[in-house]
Specification:
alpha/beta; about 35% helix
C-alpha cells in the first residue's frame, strides 16, 4: 500500500523568504566650515569713559548716585551718570549724559550727546545727538540735530537761528582778526617811521658837530 503525504522535507517549517536588498552606498558629504569673522564687541560706557580719561579728554565726571546742585562750568568734556541740577555751560566743551544720567538744568555747550534724561533747554553751537534711550523735555537750539530711533523729545527745535548765530559769531571773529592785523601793520609802519626820523636826526646832529669842529679849527 502506498501512503500518500508530505515527505520529511516538507515537515520542516519553511523559513520566510528574505528579500534581497542591494546595498547602496551612501555618499559621504564633507562640509568645509568657512571662517567667519567674529563680530566686533560693542564698546561699553565704562570702556569709553576710561579711554577718554586716558587720552585726557574727560575733564569732569558725575558718577551714578551722585547729586550736584549749582552752576557747572567745564572746559573739554563732562560726563554725567548721576544727577545734575542748576545750569551747565561750556564754550567749547562736550556734555555727555549717560543712560542712567539725569540733568535738571539749562545747558549751553558746544556739543551735547544725550542718552539719559534732560529736563531743560539745550543750546549747542555745534551739534546735539539724542541716543535711542534719550528723553529730553525742553527746547533745543543747534545747527545740527541727530535723533536715533527710540529717542523721546518734547519741545521746540530751532536750527536756522542757531546756524545764523554761529555764522554771525564766525564773521565777527574774522572781522576782529582783520582789525587786529590792521592795527599791527599800522603799528609796524609807525615804528619804522619813528626809527627813520631818529636816524635822520642823528645824522643832522653829527653834521652840525662836524661843522662846529671845522669852524673851531679855522679860528
Amino acid at each position: 500500500m502506498i501512503r500518500m503525504g508530505r515527505g520529511s522535507k516538507n515537515d520542516q517549517p519553511e523559513s520566510p523568504v528574505q528579500p534581497y536588498n542591494t546595498p547602496t552606498s551612501t555618499p559621504t558629504y564633507q562640509y568645509q566650515s568657512e571662517a567667519v569673522a567674529a563680530p566686533t564687541r560693542a564698546v561699553t560706557d565704562s570702556e569709553s569713559m576710561a579711554r577718554d580719561i586716558k587720552e585726557g579728554r574727560l575733564s569732569g565726571f558725575v558718577g551714578h548716585g551722585t547729586v550736584l546742585t549749582g552752576e557747572t562750568h567745564f572746559q573739554a568734556m563732562l560726563r554725567v551718570d548721576g544727577q545734575l541740577q542748576g545750569s551747565v555751560s561750556s564754550e567749547s566743551g562736550t556734555l555727555i549724559v549717560g543712560t542712567n544720567g539725569q540733568v535738571d538744568a539749562n545747558i549751553a555747550v558746544a556739543s551735547a550727546m544725550v542718552n539719559g534724561n534732560v529736563n531743560g533747554d539745550i543750546i549747542a553751537t555745534e551739534k546735539i545727538q539724542l541716543g535711542r534711550t534719550a528723553r529730553v523735555i525742553g527746547n533745543i537750539q543747534t545747527p545740527r540735530l541727530i535723533l536715533e530711533d527710540g529717542a523721546l523729545f518734547e519741545g521746540n527745535c530751532s536750527m536756522v537761528k542757531a546756524k545764523e548765530a554761529v555764522e554771525s559769531r564766525a564773521a565777527q571773529a574774522d572781522s576782529q582778526g582783520r582789525s587786529a592785523d590792521y592795527l599791527s601793520t599800522q603799528s609796524d609802519e609807525t615804528d619804522d617811521e619813528e626809527e627813520t626820523l631818529f636816524t635822520d636826526s642823528s645824522v643832522d646832529e653829527d653834521e652840525d658837530e662836524d661843522e662846529v669842529k671845522a669852524d673851531a679849527a679855522i679860528i
